[in-house]
Amino acid sequence: MDSIQKIEMIIEALLFASGDSLPIEKIAEIIENDKKTTKAIMSNLMYKFQNASRGIIIREIGGAYQLCTRPELDEHIQQLGTVRKKQGLTPQAYETLAIIAYNQPVTRAYIEQIRGVNSDGVLLTLTDRNLIQEVGRDNTPGKPKLYGTTEEFLRAFGFSSIKELPPLEMNEIPEVYENVPLD
Amino acid sequence: MDSIQKIEMIIEALLFASGDSLPIEKIAEIIENDKKTTKAIMSNLMYKFQNASRGIIIREIGGAYQLCTRPELDEHIQQLGTVRKKQGLTPQAYETLAIIAYNQPVTRAYIEQIRGVNSDGVLLTLTDRNLIQEVGRDNTPGKPKLYGTTEEFLRAFGFSSIKELPPLEMNEIPEVYENVPLD
Amino acid sequence: MKSALTDACTLKLENFEGPFDLLFYLIEKDKIDIYDIPISQITDQYLDYLRAMQELDLDIASEFLVMASTLLHIKSRLLLPSKESLLEGEAEDPREELIIKLLEYKKYKEYSRVLASRDEKWKGAHYKLPEIIPDIIAPDELELSPLTLRDYMADALKRYKDKQDDVSKRMARILDHEKVSLRAKIKELLTSLKKGVKLCFSKCYNTKEKSRLEVATGFLATLEIVRVGKAEIDQPVAFGEIYITPKSVQKDIDSVT
Lengths: 183, 183, 257
Known about the structure:
The complex is a heterotrimer, with 2 copies of chain A and 1 copy of chain C. By secondary structure, chain A is of the alpha+beta class.
């Protein structure tokens, strides 16, 4: 088996050549290691990239890995003049995306109930931007579509998985006192 | 002006994001340095990449710079495009392989006597797949070829030696006489 | 009531996506405690906005109007305590449902801000196009199991054994058949009789030396020879010895065989 230095070199080359995100299984296969070991190697390598004076970092996106430039260097990269400034979303779109991200899979009716407003247009926009997708049908009358977030959502918002979403605050859940019988 | 570390980070990010080769003039403009200084910075950075355990290196092509993977890692990168299917053997091949493995070295006549069918084709397939090989000639009239298993056979089954074949039960082993006429 | 307030918020008007969005804005603007909304004040402000929208000829989505009526309904219930609350002494707060909905909405409003800031940050990350890597058809990887190999060996051997057993049974049958065929026995007897000697049946056929089948066939052969007139049998004592004597009249042997 190769030394860890050699393995790290191979991984960097693979990620560079791949461009797209590379599933951990494929990396494991190429470096001839099991998935668990590969995951440990990747975590260590991600840390190294993050903390060295590197212009590129490794991102984990839904069980796959991808190289990208350090986001804070954006102003310099914009000077290349070749990269298009990405358009942000409207507050309504962020709001809808938040509801979907935290509750997926959800129906349009659920989203509209929380937002208090028709959400057809914004769902279309989010689907067009590949941030959400249909993930099935609900098992209720009318079999409404269910929406969930995409891998592109994770990439765009810097999450490695949906589990990384900031936790929901608990203080809004009403307290329930059970009637404890006294004897 | 930025520190040299920051400049190196910016250059790495620029080269990565640009994809193409980047002329020295463009780099100099973005890092806000003169061409001569920029060239010195680039030479130093190229040296660093070349000598660190990096999977990617910087190449200079006619006054422009480009990131590329280290050429000696090519064989690993090729594997990105490789799709490996796992495949088993046909029952005929398995059976023939079993007869050879448990009785080696054996002649074709012996195999055919047990199998009761012509085994030319399957012997060819097994030889092609490097699971069996000729290991000599029998000392009987006609000097027929003797077959045995290969190193690849051991590797494919995960044996360290042929002694590791799973044992057969006693009642499974009939007496086999060679040259018993069968009609 | 076309006021400074109306003017200040004209630009903002179009940005309210829905009634919750507007209500939430009003609550945040005056730093109102969401758990104790002064319904009267909020309702007035809310209606002001709707009027401003009307003045600007903006289409007011039906959701805004539904919320307006909800607010007015809550306001009236607060002013007129219900019968139940008079009887029970304690009633459900008419604002409760609205508060729960607003709290739910607030939660996602906050998350949407988190998402927006993350988006802003990660928009700065740039990716790279994949290199062109040719597809390679890899030699198939074999997936083999030692136990399967063993099983195939056992099966092949069992099949071989079964076939061997089958073959030897068949051989035995053929050999038996050959030995005891009636035709063979007749020929055998005739050969002996041709020498002109009297045969003793028990000497020719006894179960100690021959199989039962052979003895029985021998007996049948004897009867056949007698029937065609080539021999005579004689049993002087009941259950005693049977003697076979050739007949002097010669007939064609082939006619019986």
